[in-house]
Amino acid sequence: MSTSLASRSRAAAGEMGPTGRRMPKLRDPKPLTEHGPATILALCNQKGGVGKTTTTINLGAALTEFGRKVLLVDFDPQGALSVGLGVNPLELDQTIYNSLMERSVSADDVLLKTNAGMDLLPSNIDLSAAEVQLVGEVAREQTLKRVLAPLVDDYDFILIDCQPSLGLLTINALTAADGVIIPLECEYFSLRGVALLIQTIEKVSERLNPQLELEGILATMYDSRTLHGREVLGRVVQAFGEKVFHTVIGRTVRFPETTVAGEPITTFASSSAGASAYRDLAREVVARCLAA
């Protein structure tokens, strides 16, 4: 992470942040006396490699640090979320695929406890078959919502890591969700696809899930040293205004290292700028959800 971005922290609240807006004064979320019902957030972008899985893991871990009960849903056949939490997808007997396609297999049957304090509904390549098999199902867009329904009261947040496409699996995630977080790499080609994704979100909201809202756009892989990165971030803020999170996730070698270690950056490198950024994001997410 660049030095200038690393210097932005909660202590700098009120100063001008990377997005060109003043950083809000956000406090740590208050402890909870009871849990649930969960806010369901889909982390979605049809472009791959923009930080969806990294954000799902580390936002979930930061929310857990603040006393929230968190369930992560690996909804990508590549199983990257599962791998990032130390689970080998090839060794799984049952995954989210089985809960989607077999009425006899509940989400509880598939659920795994992780060392990071979060629960996980894992995935592997079997999930790729669901996109084809669901086509002939009645209310096919609501299958994931049905699977998650028994779990909603047990958690404060359910985070769904979507696959990099706008296919039927992603539509299922959007139909089940209360809000969408769009991780957006600070590159021009990433910016071009956002309009299509916004249109998809609007269509799902109109036709399948009236409560669905764009929770926020998260700038990722930001490098303040490059003019291109600063220009892209400026365009995003210009186009989406307050929908853009104040928190910006910078480039750092720490994130690939955490994948190999199979743990979040909040435990792997707890004092790093990346860990601090995801804690700031967690504060923003909680504040936005409380304000909704």
Structure described in brief:
By secondary structure, the chain is of the alpha/beta class.
Structural topology:
Elements: H1 3-6, E1 39-43, H2 52-65, E2 70-75, H3 80-84, H4 96-101, H5 107-110, E3 112-113, E4 119-121, H6 127-133, H7 143-148, E5 157-162, H8 168-176, E6 179-185, H9 188-192, H10 194-207, E7 213-222, H11 227-240, E8 244-250, H12 254-261, H13 265-268, H14 273-291
Helix pairs in contact: 2-14
Number of domains: 1
Terminal CA distance: 31 Å
Q: Which structural class is indicated by helix and strand composition?
A: alpha/beta
Average pLDDT, all residues = 90
Feature tags:
single chain; 292 residues; alpha/beta; Rossmann fold; 14 helices; 8 strands; globular
Structure, explained:
The protein is α/β, with parallel strands linked by helices and 292 residues long. The protein has one domain: 3-Layer(aba) Sandwich (Rossmann fold). It has helices at 3-6, 52-65, 80-84, 96-101, 107-110, 127-133, 143-148, 168-176, 188-192, 194-207, 227-240, 254-261, 265-268, 273-291, and strands at 39-43, 70-75, 112-113, 119-121, 157-162, 179-185, 213-222, 244-250. Strands 3-4-2-5-1-6-7-8 form an eight-stranded mixed β-sheet, sandwiched between helices. Helix 2 (52-65) packs across helix 14 (273-291). The longest helix is centred in the C-terminal third of the chain and has 19 residues, at 273-291. The two termini are 31 Å apart.
